Amino acid sequence: MPDKKDIIILAIESSCDDTGASIIHNGKIQSNIVASQQVHEQYGGVVPELASRAHQQHVLPVVDAALKEANVQSSALSAIAFTQGPGLLGSLMVGASFAKSMALGLDIPIIGVNHLDAHVLAHFIDATEVKFPYLCLLVSGGHTQIVKVISPEHIEILGKTRDDAAGEAFDKAAKMLGLPYPGGPVLDKLAQKGDPLSFKFPDSRVDQLDFSFSGLKTAVRYFIRDMPETNPNFVEQNLNNICASIQHTIVSYLMRKLIKAVKETGINEIAIAGGVSANSSLRNTIQSKAAELGWTVHIPALEYCTDNAAMIAQAGHFQYLADNFVGQDAVPYARLGK
Questions:
Q1: How far apart are CA 51 and CA 63, in angstroms?
Q2: Of 183, 170, 254, nearest to 220 (Cα)?
Q3: 282-316: per-residue pLDDT in tens?
Q4: HEC profile of 52-82
Q5: pLDDT of the residue at 283
């Protein structure tokens, strides 16, 4: 059984287009390095083949930088954690192969981390006040879920998207409006200067705690297509208001489902996670609802919202304590459910 007196874990994140490496020492993050890929901007979205090639170029320098910043020698590592899935398969294979090879050379165990669980557990980075059980609204480019976190090893999905994710809705709407990639943060910035009640966009009325965003994307496409018939410059002249209205629709929809989950479970310990948790409107709205409804809310630091290796390290630390390791035959998985 691995020694648990002095635990030093290297974590590698490579699920999409950011290559990350982090060192965690006895539950405290010592470094968190991220290398982003600019090559996708010209295509308006992530190109999987280009992403995997860029990971191959970045992974070694990023790992080296993380070790140096933490002042840790590779010989001192207790284990190596890596994102096993879900994500882009080619990108995941780069991180998994590197982690397994390095661990084999050092004769230390490896930890396969679920990317979504890591987002949910990122609230324990530099914090100890999060209490179990808590509800977490996980909103990212690929997934939208409401989960009940009973313990680091027991995370129950209460609701999930039936088609597109909230982050995808933001990015696709931004692309239709002609905004640069990645569009979600740009839309958020423009929305802060607009009136969120200027235009009405529909949300979905799917049952229970599930989500659907495909209808909203279609509505935005038709709105943009039809408006120039009366005024060719309509979208340009009303860009801030359109962005604000789209953002208001998405955030209101997310909050309505979260409020429903709180009522059904009776849990008032609330967290948000994932890339969309960096959205200013979502952060402000959930804080407002917390004051109104008596919630205790946990909002991650911005650097832990988007894909990063620190959250993989934190989840990996919990798994190390639970003796939850994988073998050299472990393979990455692109989708939930493997």
A1: 17
A2: 170
A3: 999 999 999 999 999 999 999 999 999 999 999 99
A4: HHHHHHHHHHHHHHHHHHHCCCHHHCCEEEE
A5: 97
Cα–Cα distance between 83 and 55 in angstroms, integer?
13
CB neighbour list of residue 288: distance below 8 Å, 6 or more residues apart: none
**Closest residue by Cα to residue 117 from 327, 322, 329, 254:** 322
Domains and CATH numbers, the chain: 8-122+305-321 (3.30.420.40), 130-300 (3.30.420.40)
| Residue 129 confidence (pLDDT) | 81
Cα–Cα distance for residue pair 192/78, rounded to 1 Å: 46
Which pTM value belongs to this model?
0.94
Q: Map tokens 């529909």 to a residue.
A: 202
